[in-house]
Design brief:
Helix content: 25-40%
Largest sheet: 7 strands, mixed
Number of domains: 1
CATH superfamily: NAD(P)-binding Rossmann-like Domain
Distance between the termini: 17 Å
CATH architecture: 3-Layer(aba) Sandwich
Low-confidence stretches: none
Number of strands: 7
CATH topology: Rossmann fold
Structural class: alpha/beta
Mean pLDDT: 95
Amino acid sequence: MELTSLEQEKNNFLQLRKIAVVGASNNRGKYGNIVFRKLKDKGYEVYGLNPHTDTIEGDKCYHNFCDLPSNVEGAVFVVPPEATQEAVKKAYESGIRSFWMQPGAEENQAINFCSQNGASCISGSCILVALNK
């Protein structure tokens, strides 16, 4: 059976090894923390991104994209849609070209930006579901 383009994009994203979680949180009940922990549990090198905290789950948390190591390959967005557009642009400027917008983080202008700039963008799909397959 042939994969749809969305399924192929999801598979491609999950092949990355170094992923930033935009909106990572120390609150274990929030999706920013759940996504962060699940990626770590699955063996990914995960970088929390949140301007309001210095650590997530005992790991260094980065305040902005320019502070991230230059080899980060993808970013998962777990922020309100109004924050997604600017965050996608900053991630793109830092060299990241693969984006996963969690349900509730999707923003049409950010999706269009990815499309216009040749970046991979997944929306309408939860990374937690994809990681559990």
